[in-house]
Amino acid sequence: MIATRLCLFMLVTLGAATASAERVRTVIPRATVNYLSLPVAEVKGYFRSEGLDNETIVISGTNAIAALVSGEVDYSGAGGSGMRAAVRGAPIKAIMFQTERVTWYLLATADIMKISDLKGKRVAVGTVGDTQDTLITMLVQKEGLTEKDITRVALPSRNTTMTLLALKSGAINATVVNADESLLGEKEGFRTLAFIGNLFPYPFQGFMATDKMIAERPNDIKRWLRAMVKALMFIRDRPEEAADIALKKIPMGNVSRPMVIEGVRRFAKAFAEGVPGFPSPQGIKNVVEFDVKAPLKIKEDIPPEKVLNLKLMREVKEEFELKR
After folding, report:
1. What is the DSSP string of 149-207?
2. Tens-place pLDDT, residues 150-170
3. What integer is the mean pLDDT of 92-100?
4. What is the CATH code for 2-101+202-323?
5. 166 neighbors 172 (Cβ within 8 angstroms)
6. What is the β-pairing status of strands 151-154 and 122-125?
7. How would residue 247 be classed by pLDDT, with cut points 50, 70 and 90?
């Protein structure tokens, strides 16, 4: 009888906790391995343990920022466009970055064995002059080529299928892809030439919140950040289990479990050491330079606090470091 009463008490308590969980809405641009942190945090109960009930919504581009500014959602993973909106006066700031480095890989046709073989070849970027273009230029220069040795092809709106078709048809010889796309490309016989994140620290996949929420609800933001940090550390430390969650929660297509595990590992290569989420000083400098100034063609210096508010993420990072 005592055991039965204890079970009933626990069920009632759990029901009350679920009912009282605060509903939050988080927008991401795409449902890919790059945003595996959210389904991991949901499946592993990291949001629940913080008293949150998170709903993840896929909205791309400026619409995600509009939804954030209007208050329709609480957090937006459109970090780049969000920071550019902030420098133009939008009342939003980046509050954390999932990775310390870009998660991009350089994928090429099978006949290209190394980066120097790209001389005279066509390389796809988002748009000519964008961040992808800049990093590809830096990458080929590191291998002894000049920016004139390659031809850039702008493919601003593309999915994995379009990218692989462009490679198969010969329209392009190489392209920038994410970790999971590099594996799909290898499955089709293409070659991954480099992890572009090795160039230098460049925080990626930033999440934005409104100035109003940062000022009025800092503790709520810290609860969300804790859940995200736990999820990122789980992905890094337990890639096999994270891959199983990805297979259930993310549209992966016809891929094997070993491929997804390797995709998760490649994604995690971009994470900061220790507690993820808070970028290094050099990383902060680079993200302002390449994600804000360069795309907007701004010459003058931009104070980081114009587009970033990392105070809460710093506090969460310190909490985890003390526990560890």
Report:
1. GSEEEE--S--HHHHHHHHHHTS-SEEEE-HHHHHHHHHTT-EEEEEGGGSS---EEEE
2. 999 888 777 788 889 999 999
3. 98
4. 3.40.190.10
5. yes
6. parallel
7. very high
User: Nearest to residue 54, comparing CAs of 69, 66, 68, 38?
Assistant: 38
State the average pLDDT for the chain. 90
Q: What are the beta bridge partners of residue 54?
A: 24
Other residues' Cβ atoms within 10 Å of the Cβ of residue 292: 21
CATH architecture of 105-198: 3-Layer(aba) Sandwich (3.40)
- Predicted confidence band at 7 (pLDDT cuts at 50, 70, 90)? very low
Cα 90-93-96 angle, rounded to 5 deg: 155
Q: Where are the domains of the chain?
A: 2-101+202-323, 105-198
Residue with tokens 């470091």: 321
Structure-model confidence comparison of residues 251 and 70, the more confident one: 70
Mean pLDDT of 4-33: 62
Please list, in sequence order, all residues whose beta carbon lies within 8 angstroms of the beta carbon of residue 321, skipping any fewer than 6 positions away.
274, 275
* Same fold across 2-101+202-323 and 105-198: yes
Instruction: Determine the pLDDT at residue 251.
Output: 85
Q: What is the pLDDT of residues 280-322, one digit of tens each?
A: 999 999 999 999 998 888 999 999 999 999 999 999 999 999 9
Copy the structure tokens of residue 120: 């005279």
d(CA 156, CA 133): 11
Q: What does the pLDDT look like over 78-89, one tens digit per residue? A: 999 999 999 999
What is the bridge-based pairing of β-strands 122-125 and 174-177?
A: parallel
- From residue 206, give the alpha-carbon distance in Å to each of 34, 95, 121, 214, 219: 11, 7, 32, 15, 19
What gap in Å lies between CA 104 and CA 178, rounded to an integer?
5
Query: Which one-letter DSSP state was computed for residue 269?
Result: T
Structure tokens at 124: 């796809």
